[in-house]
Write a structure and sequence with these properties.
By secondary structure, this protein is an alpha+beta fold. It has a single domain, classed as Alpha-Beta Complex (Nucleoside Triphosphate Pyrophosphohydrolase). Helix content is 18%, strand content 43%. It is built from 4 helices and 11 strands; from the N terminus they run ββαββββαβββαββα. Strands 1, 2, 3, 4, 5, 6, 7, 8, 9, 10 and 11 form an 11-stranded mixed β-sheet that branches. The radius of gyration is 17 Å and the shape is globular.
Length: 207
């Protein structure tokens, strides 16, 4: 995986070459990723869906994250990013079903790891149920949903904990229900500005 090759860019989003995953994160090169947020409407409530990252993940194990996301390889277009949805959560949808939210700059630095992403962010207005998800075991161990308004309150500081409901798959294949209150510490620590931008863009699309 560390030898996967990505297109790399300067700060003005001009492509300047190709580098391996290891080089990209060691030198902090800007590179392309694909993010897809699932949203559904039940009665009058909008819900966001999050994957639970596997406990074997190198980065941020056992934390809730974007429904489906991943790096774009050097030979891939943004449209090819839909493969991440099928691979990670087993939902087969086409690129034309996605609502574009734009490209969001995203940067995290820790120790010898620098992640500078040009995140191509999309929304999928879903009518799927939990039964429709098939999880990629080495990547994803569960799926939960959160009321969108509650998620807004969590990241605006209006509340410290919000309700998440869904399921996780145990190592033996047993499905366990999740129904608990969690705080920010249970979500991948993306920059606050990133969460705020995503929230604003989703709100614009769902009204």
């Amino acid at each position: 995986m560390e030898n996967e090759q990505f297109k790399i860019f300067d700060k003005d989003r001009n492509q300047i070459g190709i580098a391996t995953r290891e080089e990209v994160h060691r030198h902090g090169y800007w590179h392309e990723t694909f993010h897809c947020w699932f949203v559904s409407k039940e009665d009058d409530t909008n819900f966001l869906y999050f994957q639970l990252r596997s406990d074997t993940k190198k980065d941020y194990p056992n934390l809730f994250d974007i429904t489906a996301a991943g790096h774009l390889l050097a030979n891939e277009t943004v449209e090819d990013g839909v493969r991440e949805i099928k691979e990670e959560v087993g939902i087969d949808i086409s690129f034309r079903e996605l609502v574009p939210l734009g490209i969001i700059d995203y940067c995290v630095e820790k120790e010898s790891f620098i992640d500078r992403e040009l995140a191509n962010v999309f929304l999928y207005k879903s009518n799927k149920s939990f039964d429709d998800f098939t999880l990629q075991e080495e990547e994803v161990s569960g799926i939960v949903k959160v009321a969108f308004n509650d998620f807004i309150k969590l990241w605006s500081g209006e509340t410290e904990k919000i309700q998440v409901t869904g399921f996780t798959i145990q190592k033996d294949g047993e499905q366990i229900l999740i129904d608990e209150k969690v705080g920010r510490d249970k979500f991948v620590p993306h920059q606050l500005a990133f969460y705020e931008t995503v929230i604003r863009k989703i709100r614009e699309k769902i009204g």
